[in-house]
Design a protein that fits this description.
The chain has two domains: 95 residues, Hemagglutinin Ectodomain, Chain B; 73 residues, Nucleotide Exchange Factor Grpe, Chain A, domain 2 (Roll). It is of the alpha+beta class. The N and C termini lie far apart (139 Å). Helices cover 50% and strands 17% of the residues. It has a three-stranded antiparallel beta sheet with strand order 1-4-5. Strands 2-6-3 form a three-stranded mixed beta sheet, with no helix packed on it. It contains four helices and six strands; from the N terminus they run H-H-H-H-E-E-E-E-E-E. The longest helix is centred in the middle third of the chain and has 69 residues.
């Protein structure tokens, strides 16, 4: 009986060698996990929106560059026109100065020559005002170091002239609210009329 049982048993040998070959397992393709369809659709829409936004930003940047170049050209053209108009106005002054020189060479009356120079100076100042440039009135005004450069002191016996501009050496000019050039002037300093010396309240040169 035991012998029959032994004869009835048999051994099965698995000869599928690929199960023992790990390289075969590693090289096999594992199915890729895919997103659900609605996630794929949302992802595609997001990528499309990003591309459109990038294109729009590039277009806006290009438009801004073109607008900036147009504005620069327009500003340059206006500035050039303003310069030409200003120079044309001053050519009139140059013409008058040439006439004054010709009159001086021909022996004209000095008084007439002086009058011509004064008229030309007035014309020149008018042209400056039209361009926004005006002289600073500092004569007999309290000395202001922000508007006037003191180049000297002049003794005065009148207390009303103490620390005031009593002589303008060179005119100052302003352009609108900005100081274009400070005036150069001499400032009064009070002296004691009796002693001929400076009083204790005399002005100090800045």
């Amino acid at each position: 009986m035991a012998e029959k049982e032994r004869e009835g048993r048999f051994q099965v040998t698995d000869r599928r060698s690929w199960l023992e070959d790990e390289s075969v397992i590693e090289g096999s393709q594992i199915p890729e996990n895919r997103y659900p369809s609605y996630v794929e659709e949302l992802k595609a829409r997001t990528e499309l929106a990003e591309r459109k936004l990038k294109q729009r930003l590039e277009q806006l940047e290009s438009d801004n560059d073109a607008l900036r170049r147009r504005l620069e050209r327009t500003l340059e053209q206006r500035l050039n026109r303003f310069k030409m108009d200003l120079l044309l106005r001053f050519l009139e002054v140059a013409d008058n100065l040439e006439r004054a020189l010709e009159a001086a060479e021909s022996g004209s009356d000095p008084q007439e020559l002086r009058k011509g120079v004064e008229l030309n100076l007035r014309l020149f100042l008018d042209r400056l005002r039209e361009a926004g440039i005006e002289p600073i009135q500092v004569l007999n005004q309290p000395f202001d170091p922000h508007l006037t450069e003191a180049v000297g002191l002049i003794p005065v016996t009148d207390a009303a002239l103490d620390q005031r501009v009593v002589e303008v050496v060179q005119r100052g000019y302003r352009y609108g609210d900005r100081l274009l050039r400070p005036a150069r002037a001499r400032v009064g300093r009070l002296v004691d009329a009796a002693s001929g010396g400076e009083s204790d309240s005399g002005a100090k040169q800045e």
